Amino acid sequence: MEDALRKKGFLWGALLAWAPWIPTLIGIGYLFVGINNSKATGLGAIAGGMAELLVWWGIATMIICQVAAIVWLCRSFSSTHILRSLVAAVSVLASGLMLVLVCAFLFWSRHFLGSGPSR
């Protein structure tokens, strides 16, 4: 019974860990297509594409999903299922990387694009 709960937690955790990567990769693809089509260069082109990709509700949803995925995946580790534990560990690292990317974007957008006086 406990193994079935761990398996269910693993499946939900893995789904939540990898789900945000699909729209992120699609958005990055659109970003490069937009830069190529408009022949734009510099930080302004990248910032515009990233702003379209990561809207505020999306950021909040992504953070909540990644934290839930990490919790469920950490609870699903098992010494008898080595492959499942390995996939769980890689998924936890992917979730951590996604959280770092989101937090870096939030810091960058608040710190460099804040509403303070222009320089």
Report on this model:
The chain is elongated and about 55 Å long. The protein has one domain (2-112). Helices cover 82% and strands 0% of the residues. The chain has 119 residues and is an all-alpha fold. The N and C termini lie far apart (62 Å).
Brief descriptors of the model:
119 residues; 5 helices; 82% helix; elongated
Helix content: over 70%
- Report the average pLDDT across residues: 80
Supply the number of structural domains.
1
* C-alpha termini separation: 62 Å
Q: What is the tally of helical segments?
A: 5
Unreliable sequence segments = none
How much strand?
under 5%
Brief digest:
It is built from five helices and no strands.
Write the layout of secondary structure elements.
Elements: H1 2-18, H2 21-38, H3 43-53, H4 56-75, H5 82-112
